[in-house]
Structure formats: C-alpha cells, structure tokens
Design goal:
Number of helices: 10
Largest sheet: 5 strands, mixed
Number of strands: 11
Number of domains: 1
Strand content: 15-25%
Radius of gyration: 18 Å
Helix content: 25-40%
Shape: globular
Structural class: alpha/beta
CATH class: Alpha Beta
Order of helices and strands: EHEHHEHEHEEEEEEHHEHHH
CATH architecture: Alpha-Beta Barrel
Distance between the termini: 29 Å
Oligomer: single chain
Amino acid sequence: MSFIYTVDVEDWYQVENLRPSFPRDTWLNCESRVEGAVQRLLELCAEKEVKGTFFILGWIAKRHPQLVQAIAAGGHEVACHGFNHDMLTVMNEAAIRRDIAAAKALLEDSCGVSVTGFRAPNFSITNPALDILADLGFEYDSSLFPFARHDRYGKIDTSRFERLGANIYRYKNNGLLEFVLPIRRIRRVDLPWAGGGYFRLLPIRVYCGGVRAILAQNETFIFYMHTWEIDPGQPHVKTVRAAARFRHYVGLKGAYRKLEHLLGQFGGSTRLTDLAHRVRLSSPANG
C-alpha cells in the first residue's frame, strides 16, 4: 500500500477564493510567505522520512528558484502546477500550451532534472489539456478529482481511458497516466477525502480512518495540500464573499499539527513519478 504525499506550491494571494481582491497585477505588491511554508514542510518531511511530489507554480519558480532547488535537494519530485494558477477550463488551447510549457521549462532550468508530472490549478483539467501534456513530454497528470458537486473541478471523458487500477488510468490517445484523487463512499454518498479544505475540516482521527479505509480498497492514497494551509499567520482578507473566506481560512490554525499526525501515521517515500514508473513496468502500453 502507498500513501503518497503531494503539495501544491503557491502563495496565499494566488488562490481562486481570493482572486477578486488580488488580480495578478497586484501579486508583486503582496507579502510573500511561501518560502517559510516550504521550509517548514521540508523540515517536517525530513523528520518523518517522507518523500513527496511538489507541484510548483512557474510564477513561484521564477521569483524563488532556490525553493525549487531545495525541494529537489530534499529528494522530492519537482512537478508542474502551471505558470499563473489560471484555471484550464477558462483558457483556450493555445493559452494552455503557452502557460504549461513556460512553467515546465522554468522548473527544469531551476532543478536540472526533467519535469514529467502535472496538476491543474483547482483540478481544472480538460481533455484538450491531456493531449497538450503528452505533447509537451509529461508522463502523468494528477488533476482528476471526481467530486461532481465542486464548482471548479474539471470534467473529462473517462471513456477515453483504459483503467489500470482503482484510481489509475491510461489515456488511450497518447499513453498519459492519470492518477485520480480519492473519494470515500459512505452510504452511497461520495465524499472528497484527498486533503485540502476537507482535511482541515475533519477531525484528524476521522480523517485517518477514512485514509485507512481507502487504502484497504485501492492500495494507493494520494494526499494533497497547499503550502499556505500551514500558515495561519497569513493576512486575513475581508473583501471577498463569506463563502470564499470560509473555504480559504477554515482550519488553518490546526492544520500543521494535523499534518504532523497524518505523516507520522502513514509516512511514505513513494513519489508520483515512482508510481508512474511502477505502473509502466507492470502494465506496458499496448504495442
């Protein structure tokens, strides 16, 4: 069984919930807190002997290349989160290609190794984006979060996939692997269980119980979080809607402590690139 730890590396003002108050032309004037958050996570990973996959924004890598280098030096996988944290569902194909290609090139220049993994901002993956990813040299995507009631998550045509495991698919068009974020079904109701705000909301013992249940069925659990989620000291913005404030700030105060417990319980040294390699060895593409 594999518990896989993943982090979306972005600063607090770049999230969709706060976008109305922080359009991109304001970002350079905002207090950057991402360096401290990444350092805390790297120290915790070293303490718990965890290796993870860090999906990093190109915008962050351009201004903090030392963070990319530190992540790689810690034995973690450097993966791509796009450049400007724009949702793919509102971009045309040419814009998607430019955004992802620029971020990939910058990350590779910063860490000196090939970047082969991708996660779309807000899990906003689309079918055209999958073809673009394969064309740009990516080996896998981990953006499909099949929780239908979320207003931002992308929807893709899974009939175009070959199923290799409970939450592992291969895109028939180009062989790109898709690692799906976990959902827990309780009494015929699907509940998002991968991390993020769902992790911050639930009591840690309840959350860990769900992780064990999913691992017992699927053998693989992909956990995700954002760097800003362990930073309760970030500015508190009151100029966005109440629902957006709740989504962003709920549970920040106790998130780091809960993460310590989670990694202590499950740990793990499997990165998504390791999982991709294992899947390809056990299930080579047809032909």
